[in-house]
Design a protein that fits this description.
single chain; 172 residues; mainly alpha; two-stranded antiparallel sheet
Length: 172
């Protein structure tokens, strides 16, 4: 006879009286019974990890403040470096080209090319279609591909390493 959902001894086709398995996370049972504002640093760290885990993005940056500070400093340094390069090298020739083109001229050419490509498209199509156009989708897909692979190779490993049960249980 098939088990009926919600019937006696079941819950959603699962046997309620089934024997408990041995899972690694059950080592945390005593910590999970404590209130989230407990004085135990392991319980506070578990609460932080659970709260962070509920988010979608930038989890490891929420857990490791030093990494967040490094990212902010790196972004500011990169912006300053790019601005500095643009201003100091504006009249410098580009060494890779055989023509007499300076950095400033190359930037103006790039901006002009982008404007002459995008402006007619925006006039020909409505702006909402332009934003949702194939070019934007390709750029977003490529950026997402690169960012997700960098995240998986570097930051997800840090996140998973920090969330290990044995690390949490060693905290004092």
């Amino acid at each position: 006879m098939p088990v009926v959902a919600g019937g006696s001894g079941t819950w959603g086709d699962f046997k309620v009286g089934a024997p408990q398995e041995i899972w690694e996370f059950l080592q945390l049972a005593d910590l999970m019974k404590q209130p989230s504002d407990s004085a135990d640093c392991r319980r506070r760290d578990l609460a932080l990890q659970l709260e962070t885990g509920s988010g979608l993005f930038f989890k490891v940056w929420r857990l490791i403040p030093a990494l967040r500070a490094i990212a902010i400093v790196g972004a500011v340094a990169l912006a300053v470096l790019l601005l500095w390069l643009a201003f100091t090298a504006w009249n410098s020739p580009l060494p890779a080209l055989q023509w007499d083109v300076t950095v400033g001229r190359a930037l103006v050419i790039l901006l002009f090319t982008a404007a002459t490509t995008v402006v007619p498209l925006l006039k020909w199509m409505n702006p909402q279609s332009a934003v949702r156009g194939y070019g934007m989708k390709v750029v977003i897909a490529l950026a997402g591909f690169v960012a997700s692979n960098v995240h998986l190779l570097i930051f997800n490993r840090l996140y998973l390493k920090r969330g290990r049960v044995d690390r949490l249980l060693r905290l004092d």
